[in-house]
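Transcriptional regulator
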Amino acid sequence: MNTKRVGQILKESREERKLSVKDVAKETNIAAKYIIALETEDYSQFPAETFALGFLKNYASYLKLDTAMLLNLYRGEQIEESQAPLEELTKPTMSSFSLDRNRFVTMLSIALVAVAAYILYISFEDSGASLEDETANVTETEDTSSTEIPSGINFVSQSVPENASVPFILTEDRGVSFSVNNQQCKMFVRGVQNGKANIGFNIFPEKNVYFFQTAEGEETLLSYRIQELSSLRRDIRVVTQAVTEKSAKVLVTLREEREGVVSKPVGDVPIQVTLFFSKPSYVEFVIDGQMGERGLVSAGEVKHLEARDRLEMKVGDGGAVEMVQNGKERAVLGKPGKLVKKIFVRKQNPYDSTQSIIGELGE
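Predicted structure tokens:
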């Protein structure tokens, strides 16, 4: 088992090739201070984790190391360090198990208190059971009521094209935001009980959430004919493919459009981007000013992004990703191993003030 850390692997590999930090900086165009930061694992030197991962990938490629292994090792080290304070707090500090007389008296007192507490628990068990039943009934009622979106949920933006079904992975801390006829909708999970997921659905800018329960294999139709969803512009078909203890996988399809809804004018379409990953790469998405997905994407994955006015993307390895933007020809995003940043915005059509077009900053 390899017990070496990321910094040690990088430094030893550089020294084996008899390269100085200055040599590496010149060949890779990475500042010397960042090379030293990677080898010493001083990641506070980087303005954001995006840069640390991008430079780590470039440096590893230059040294002909296994970049995927190093990125996974880096992730593991970050998780271990985040857990270290808890481990230190819970680590036993006693060096000996010998007990003197005072300790014996103390432990005996604790044991007596525990026995007394247990007797009290037994005596009130019946009343406690009835209270639990009452609480359970209240909880079941709350699962179907409307409330605001819980705080702490990270919403990832996805697009649902016409005549296509798109899978959503929903958890209690990660939901999906998508557009329906230029109407922003959000979907997430609020608990799973007895094999049924309690899924929340919100229509922006409304604050209330419509909840429905669904099990694997069941189909739900979110329709504007439902009183709580009267503002919805078209029906949405939701088929539940899988339910686990804390998540659900659903297949979402756009259905019947509401009568009387005025179609959006040609050109007044959302910003739509689809990314195809041939290799693992770090990404960061900002959608209409809100942070979207951020992290490492595996090879073979496809990401559908949609924004109304502004979409910002950062990709750690431009050569590992191909992009389709608003129906344009599929093309490689950038050079292999290079960090790529793209910003798409909605602009007014210079030839028709009633319509808008999608443009890229810098074009």
